[in-house]
Amino acid sequence: MKRLYVMMAGAALVVALAGCETMNQITEGVTGIAVATGQLSEEEAGSINRTTRAVTKTFEDITPEQEYYIGRTVAATVLMGYRPLENGVLNNYVNRVGQSLAQFSSRPETFGGYRFLVLDSDEINAFAAPGGLVLVTRGLLACCETEDELAAVLAHEIGHVEKQHGLRAIKTGRLSTALSTLAVESMKTMGSAELAEVTKAFDESIHDISGTLMNSGYSRKLEFEADLCAVDILRAAGYTPGALVAMLENMDKRWEPARLDFAATHPPPADRIKELKRRGVETSKDTKPERSRRFRAAVGAR
């Protein structure tokens, strides 16, 4: 399993390297420093820059397929720390709700399709990996009192996928560090062996990238952006947008700044509630009888 993960990490991170829009500028700046300090010759620095430009040209943008494999790598990292919940009824239910919501996002399809999985953890948390892999904990589901509130959680995570927030983190997280290491340590003309060093550097960086997503979370701006996406998705899918506010109120009751779960990866619920209400979204516990029956039957099976 670990060997497979490392292989996936290497491929995904070379893609992430290639997708960086400012890679040439970053690399040239790093190699310039290395030349100035005598660690690289002008010829060696030029070789690094030429190879980087070649890689960038080959993968000018991260394609949907590449995004999918990056997302798989990130999700694999999360699953190294969290066990999937072995509950077919609940997982199928969460998937049905999630798949339905995804069709109302501005990005209803991804290369590998959306996938939703419940994690067997009391932590209150959720992770949206690039490409549509959404992982939610048992503890977060326990905060949901209706299907509409569950839909709000999933719609928020779909919003992260829709806006490609995960890719933003991957592109900017550790690229400069990896490139700096490569530029300072490479002392010969780059060829296939040196390109393998790029892969190695990013193998070692994937843990840092995933750690950023799991431990520090997205910025406040991106969390608010995902909330607004969720409101649009909920409204289009026939759910009550105010269910997102109700869900955040449930989370606010459990808010402890020292917690290592959602308190570490999200802005305070009160701040998100204030932002939503400023935009005219008020709390709502409304739901439909059929949704209540479905919710009790599936979530009660935990």
Helix-strand blueprint:
Elements: H1 2-19, H2 23-36, H3 42-58, H4 64-79, H5 88-102, E1 115-119, E2 126-129, E3 133-137, H6 138-141, H7 147-162, H8 165-173, H9 175-185, H10 192-216, H11 220-237, H12 242-253, H13 262-265, H14 269-278, H15 289-299
Parallel strand pairs: 1-3
Antiparallel strand pairs: 2-3
Provide a descriptive summary of the structure in words.
This protein has 302 residues and is mainly α. Helices cover 66% and strands 5% of the residues. A 3-stranded mixed sheet has the order 1-3-2, with helices on both faces. Helix 7 crosses helix 12 (242-253) and helix 9 (175-185) runs antiparallel to helix 10. Mean pLDDT is 75; it is low at 1-27, 54-60 and 171-182.
What would the keywords be for this entry?
single chain, mainly alpha, three-stranded mixed sheet
What's the helix count?
A: 15
State the helical fraction. Answer: 55-70%
- Tell me about the largest β-sheet: 3 strands, mixed
Our count of domains comes out at: 2
Q: Roughly how many Å is the radius of gyration?
A: 21 Å
Estimated share of beta-strand residues = under 5%
Mean pLDDT: 75
The quaternary organization reads as single chain
Instruction: Report how far the terminal alpha carbons are from each other.
Output: 28 Å
What is the molecular shape?
Answer: globular
Secondary-structure element order, as H and E?
Answer: HHHHHEEEHHHHHHHHHH
Strand order of the largest sheet: 1-3-2
Protein structure class: mainly alpha
Low-confidence sequence ranges: 1-27, 54-60, 171-182
- DSSP summary, beta strand count: 3
